[in-house]
Amino acid sequence: MEFLSPPTWADALAAKAARPDAVPLAGGTDVMVELNFRRRAPAALLDLTRVPELRAWREEDGLLRIGAGVSYARIMAELGGRLPGLARAARTVGSPQIRNRGTLGGNLGSASPAGDGHPPLLATGALVELASTRGVRRVPVAEFFTGPKQSVLSDDELIAAVLVPPAPGPQQFAKIGTRNAMVIAVASFALELRPEGSVGTGIGSAGPTPLRAPEAEAFAAAELPWASRGRLDPAVAERFGELVAAAASPIDDVRGTAAYRRRTLGVLARRTLTWAWSELCA
Amino acid sequence: MRVICTVNGVERSADDVWEGESLLYVLRERMGLPGSKNACEQGECGSCTVYLDGVAVCACLVAAGQAAGRDVVTVEGLADGEELHPVQRAFLDAGAVQCGFCTPGLVVAVHDLLEREAAPSDPEIREALAGNLCRCTGYEKILDAVRLAAARAREETP
């Protein structure tokens, strides 16, 4: 096995072009587990922790550009004000030790349907920036995932950053698991309310990929009393939950049944809509 | 490959390190520092918690090569010679040590918590220790130890 440790982004892209079989490594919270258990024996590891650009975030053309190597702990500490949904999701990841190390880029690279970072990125319409020596492309996160642990990432590409619009209104995230900490989601849901009258959604751990719920979004955009900012009709919240549950495509597995996941999603969607609407009208 | 890093303030070198090897393995098997415990090897149990450049991490999830040139502090680096660190003292005094296997990781995690928050609330303590598993104590004595260490530190620095 080779251990590649490029000091710059250009070196990292060159290394990936030269060794497309190299496995990118950042926080190690997925890759090191596979190595420790000898489930994987890559020809090379590509350590990305020495590339400064990956650990930085900044504003760019009205979007927040978050380097793929920014840890969950830093998202919580530094971006909670502008991206409350993503920060809430980051807070539910693993434990303090895991959040100190795990990154959004790693979450996307693993492309698990259960990744906690994915639903808020879907709900906010984020872009994923992919780079190679051939160039840079930006992919809407809804088009990034192609199947369980599969994405559009090519062998010679690395995930550079995500680009997320600062929250235009309330954002929520909720996750179901067997305890509060150290849990892979049984189901999760992210919501964004945009005061001009639209809604974003993201479903986690209830389909082959993270999913949006377009019909639920359209329903909420049409039915919420945006102009009056009146109280949320419980029937609207209930129907929203049903439409979110219907958008999911869950399976039975070790963490839960498909039926439980659907039921859970309906409840999470109804609750998060209720919280977010009262926040919007406060 | 050779890995050189600073461990508990001293520059250390390890040879013939496998490229996929964890920092935990290097510390325990190549540097003679068995304080950090090897249990789950998947970041679930926290018994290998160390500081990497001042940040508390699971050593089992850090590739050895990622630690090269970095500053590592293990549980062995917390005591001042024979004088236990106040967090270690509090664990003994509160009866928070039973089999002792989880203790080193918990001591580092508590050390990290008290560096950040001198007077943590109970929910803050539970949150900070959520990634450290103990199968003996039921955690109550560990929570007592954290409260004791925090109270003693506050008495010393009014």
Protein model, in words:
The complex is a heterodimer of chains A (282) and B (158). Chain A has two domains: 2-111 and 127-164, 2-Layer Sandwich (Uridine Diphospho-n-acetylenolpyruvylglucosamine Reductase, domain 3), CATH 3.30.465.10; 171-281, CO dehydrogenase flavoprotein, C-terminal domain (Enolase-like, domain 1), CATH 3.30.390.50. Helices cover 37% and strands 23% of the residues of chain A. Chain A is built from eleven helices and 13 strands. Chain A has helices at 9-18, 31-36, 72-79, 84-91, 96-101, 104-110, 118-123, 141-144, 214-223, 234-247, 258-281, and strands at residues 2-4, 22-25, 44-47, 57-60, 63-67, 127-132, 135-140, 145-147, 150-151, 158-164, 171-176, 187-194, 198-204. In chain A, strands 4-5-10-6-7 form a five-stranded antiparallel β-sheet. The longest helix of chain A is centred in the last third of the chain and has 24 residues, at 258-281. By secondary structure, chain B is α+β, with helices and mostly antiparallel strands. Helices cover 37% and strands 13% of the residues of chain B. In chain B, strands 2-1-5-3-4 form a five-stranded mixed β-sheet, with helices on both faces. The interface between A and B is medium-sized, with 30 and 29 residues.
Topology:
The complex is a heterodimer of chains A (282) and B (158).
Chain A: E1 2-4, H1 9-18, E2 22-25, H2 31-36, E3 44-47, E4 57-60, E5 63-67, H3 72-79, H4 84-91, H5 96-101, H6 104-110, H7 118-123, E6 127-132, E7 135-140, H8 141-144, E8 145-147, E9 150-151, E10 158-164, E11 171-176, E12 187-194, E13 198-204, H9 214-223, H10 234-247, H11 258-281
Parallel strand pairs in A: 1-3, 2-3
Antiparallel strand pairs in A: 4-5, 5-10, 6-7, 6-10, 8-9, 11-12, 12-13
Helix pairs in contact in A: 3-4, 9-10, 10-11
Chain B: E1 3-7, E2 10-14, H1 23-30, E3 49-52, E4 55-58, H2 64-67, E5 71-73, H3 86-93, H4 103-116, H5 122-128, H6 140-156
